[in-house]
Design a protein that fits this description.
321 residues; alpha+beta; four-stranded antiparallel beta sheet
């Protein structure tokens, strides 16, 4: 296995979404394998006190790596949480003989196309067949996806999202941490830049769906209702392996949604506080553990394309062999 091929695959994995675009991962490349580690220096303690967002972000990067290698014609085996004595080592991906995963390879072209779209979506509802497909992709990782289509469940879910947004802003240090990651220094390779956040116009200012300060992204011209759908991802357990699986399922859902023409935006506020997370489980009426909520919808007609958000260069995220 050539080093340039592995480097290219990891470079594509860096396009994965992460909480506040913090990119909390490190990678170690060996002859025919790649190790995924957390980067504790990029943990957001005020936003993510129990490291849930950090591990889910790394899980999304792990799935991006699977897709990248499959798209490059490489078959893999993946060991998750391989070292009980090293909590930073989340997974080892080994290149093996055999055909690549065809389902993963089918998502390869979406890595560069997927962007978080925080704007209002079209009034056109998401087709039921699209939602069914997303549920199937999540199930491949042992994760349940729950489209919130029932009006009563949607009302309760939105109440939880509003509660989480309100309570989080009362947490000491949270707003300072939010400011840190939305006002990065010039030429930074991380964080959420203004061009990725809609400007506030009063037409569609929904605090529980837009946690970031007003940006410079044009929100779109349509003033009709938003037809977006919320999809909650849950797991039977709530350990590191479950959160990693939720991250992989998040990546799979986002990439598949991109492939079928949907706009997407991960929402993690409702799971970052224990009280809000318990309320979300009750609102959904499920016994499993909520891990993340994804908002998706049909893009507004004529909406301008989104610019890629910055990423750290490969050299800055590699560990020594």
């Amino acid at each position: 296995m050539s080093a340039p091929l592995l480097e290219r695959a990891v470079g594509l994995a860096l396009r994965a979404p992460s909480v506040h675009n913090s990119q909390p991962w490190r990678w170690r490349l060996r002859r025919a394998e790649v190790e995924l580690h957390t980067d504790p220096s990029r943990h957001l303690p005020e936003t993510d006190p129990d490291r849930r967002d950090l591990v889910i972000s790394c899980g999304a990067a792990l799935h991006h790596l699977r897709v990248a290698l499959a798209g490059l014609g490489v078959a893999v085996e993946v060991d998750v949480v391989p070292d009980a004595e090293n909590s930073r080592h989340l997974a080892t991906v080994r290149c093996v003989d055999g055909p690549p995963d065809r389902s993963a390879a089918a998502l390869f072209g979406q890595i560069s196309r997927r962007h978080t779209d925080r704007r209002r979506y079209s009034a056109e509802p998401v087709p039921a067949v699209r939602l069914t497909g997303l549920v199937t992709w999540a199930q491949g990782f042992g994760v349940s996806a729950h489209p919130v289509t029932d009006p009563g469940v949607l009302q309760r879910t939105n109440e939880v999202l509003r509660f989480a947004a309100r309570e989080q802003r009362r947490e000491p240090g949270y707003l300072a941490e939010l400011l840190l990651w939305t006002h990065r220094y010039a030429a930074a390779h991380d964080g959420v830049p203004p061009l990725a956040v809609p400007m506030r116009t009063g037409q569609w200012d929904v605090p529980h769906l837009q946690r970031f300060p007003s940006g410079t992204l044009a929100p779109g011209q349509d003033t009709g209702p938003d037809g977006g759908t919320l999809v909650a991802l849950t797991t039977p357990e709530d350990d590191t392996a479950a959160r990693l699986a939720a991250g992989e399922a998040t990546s799979a859902v986002l990439l598949h949604a991109t492939r079928v023409g949907l706009a997407t935006a991960p929402l993690s506020q409702a799971v970052e506080q224990p009280v809000a997370r318990r309320r979300l489980r009750v609102a959904l009426g499920v016994p499993d553990q909520p891990q993340i909520v994804i908002r998706l919808g049909v893009p507004l007609p004529g909406a301008p394309p989104l610019a890629p958000t910055p990423r750290r260069p490969l050299a800055s995220v590699l560990l020594r062999p």
